[in-house]
Amino acid sequence: MPRTFSHSSSRPSSRQAPPRGRSRRRAGPDAATLLQGAGLRVTPARVAVWDTLQSSDAPMSHADLEQLLPEAMDRVTLYRTLDRLHDAGLLHRSVGDDRVMRFAPHQVESVHARHAHFRCDNCGRLYCLDAKLPRKPALPEGFVVEGAEWTLHGRCPHCD
Q1: Which residues of the chain have pLDDT under 70?
Q2: Spatial separation of the C-alpha atoms in residues 99 and 118, rounded to whole Å
Q3: Distance between CA atoms of 95 and 54, rounded to whole angstroms?
């Protein structure tokens, strides 16, 4: 069964722990080492955002992060933190058909670096697929691929 992550636009009134089964700690360098290696200052906001994204099984939106961060963070700081981590090459950023931007760790061992997603058009759930991606198409001379996203969409089993 594919891993699922529900993306909700509503914000709960209190902080919630990640739902059971939807998060796990991945092995790899700690946040401080990674940030320093990318030439970034180590700040509590960057560490908290990185650790939260690193422990997720699915890409996360700004709203998802607001709900799951261990301590409240103002929206501007969160947006700036995500932008900075992305600009430093640490995060993959994608925009779905719902026009919501989602982030995932961008590194070789990241589960989000090389797989496809399925988005349910009815409920909005995003599923991580274990299927292999298609081969990169041949490009005309001078074109350089810097990223790709592969998202299928339709109806999930819960909405049939």
Answers
A1: 1-29, 97, 107-114
A2: 15
A3: 19
Range 3-154 has CATH code 1.10.10.10:
yes
pLDDT of amino acid 113: 52
Residue 114 to residues 15, 39, 117, 132, Cα–Cα distance (Å): 31, 25, 10, 8
Ranges of each domain in the chain: 3-154
pTM, to two decimals: 0.58
Q: pLDDT tens, 36-46?
A: 888 999 999 99
Q: How far apart are CA 119 and CA 143, in angstroms?
A: 29
**Separation between Cα atoms, residue 109 and residue 126, nearest integer Å:** 21
- Asked if residue 69 lies in contact with residue 75, where contact means CB atoms within 8 angstroms, the answer is no
| pLDDT tens readout for residues 14-25 | 333 333 334 444
Tell me how crowded residue 116 is: count the other CB atoms within 10 A of its CB.
17
Rounded distance between C-alpha atoms, residue 47 and residue 31, angstroms: 6
- 10 Å Cβ neighbour count for 126? 26
